[in-house]
Task: structure prediction
Amino acid sequence: MLYKLAELFLKTLKSLKNDGLRHTWFKIKNKTQILKKNRQLATNAIYTKKQLRAQKKEFFPEAILISVIVPLFNTPERFLREMIQSLLDQTYANWELCLADGSDAEHNDVQEICQKYFPKDKRIKYRRLEKNLGISGNTNACLEMATGDYVALFDHDDLLHPAALYDVMKAICEKDADFIYTDENTFHNNPKDAFCPHFKQDYSPDSLRGINYICHLTVFKKSLLEEAGLFRPECDGSQDYDMVLRLTEKAKRIVHIPKILYYWRAHPESVAETVGAKPYVIQAAHKALSDHLERIGLKGEVLDSRVPTVYRIKYEIADAPLVTVLIPNYEHKAELEACLNSIFEKSTYPNFEIIIIENNSKSEEIFSYYEEIQKKWANVKVVHWTGQFNYSSINNFGANCAKGEHLLLLNNDIEVITPDWIQEMLMFSQRADVGAVGAMLFYPDDTIQHAGVILGLGGVGGHSHKYFKRNEYGYMGRLVYAQNVSAVTAACLMIKKTVWDEVGGLDESFQVAFNDVDFCMRVRRAGYLNVWTPFAELYHYESKSRGYEDTPEKQRRFEGEVRRFRERWEKELAAGDPYYNPNLTLDREDFSPRY
Result:
């Protein structure tokens, strides 16, 4: 406790020094409010007592046995009893608890406690191991005892919500799920003091390669193990991560239940408290990810991100394909010059062309500049769009002039920060399963302008983590790893030309607003993944107040585009963004709880 207070004091001093009193007070106030909401979430009942009683009487069309796997090792008595009791309290009764005990001789009380339970309830199976086989070996011993159709992974010091297995069973019966996971919360003494609710995204392969966000509760069809294999001792420390990667490679129907049905206990020896308790988990995770990449045929190097247990993959880029950068421009010589200078001075990717799409400028200055840059840089070309302003039409026109295998839409008020920004986007764009790729964009004051688009935020779509300060980690670390998103902004968007052509480019009925979100949704509907990466960083000199529709004509146009988007994507808006969570707010960009 003293350590945590000292750490908090030092963070406060650092914030006062860097950000000033006003911003520090705002951060403290905001975090206090979020912490209060998180505490309230821990005590809010997902189901009433009446509903829980009704669940016990519910009849399912299939009699599915769920084997709950719990490897034991020197488990404290209170933790052990509470863990078992949380299973006995389940409203779905067709389960078996498989306990394999690798405790040392000084912890014979673990065996004594378990032996008092299993004679009273035949669903509880216990096996004392001759020696500790490690976490993977002990877990595999549990699996040898399992006779169920599905397997649930449960840590020996954690707790289940009474409806956890009931909701899992519903997902199996209603959605034919072969891999299921739930939301979770972290607590110290009991679930009422839970302080860190993790409201997760639906299955997101790129997110999973950055962090094991799936974690708890994980349930899967036992037959998947025959394909994926048992737990691997060489991945001890990140054995669950390794298993989740292997199982999701094989699973046909992955279902996320957006309810807090698992409580992860934080204590000094647990990873939930600090990764420093088990530093070897990082090395094991590197192996799990490297092996995963080899199995699925992707070449890349696994690196650490800025946060422990969060990872970054540098995918190999094949053949250095030509990238066409499309920059619409009207007047604004200074902004365009700053943009181009930053590209040529900083970019390390060698094979690109730039097409500037001139849109009815009048000044001699800008046309003189066009002549200058085309003489200066052989890979710069200016084409002329003579129609009225329509962002979609302008970019479609430019795309028709492109020679590159990949298109990179770029606003003229962008400046490059990271020299390898093109490579960081291209490594995803080159993949056959990926459509649009977006970057991390900052305002000039180093606050976030764009970190991916959340469908439904603000009514249609809004930017994730907008106005967060640079170098913040974001909600559950989401600002420090590449991830799948529903959409990205066209202010900096890369996509294969073949995919662009397949979906028909930007929809020209969206003249100004939501053309990029609509485009990404069509890419998603075509079966591609959209990716946002924090490792391609650029400044976007868009004013924070930009976007106000201050004339009747602009307001009518904007309202028409809102209406058109909502009509086209009505079902998707109603279903919610799969890469967000229905328990999180749609009123703000800060991932705070909805209720």
In short: Residues 1-43 form one domain. The CA atoms of residues 440 and 537 lie 5 Å apart. DSSP finds 18 helices and 22 strands in the chain. Confidence is low (pLDDT under 50) at residues 1-10.
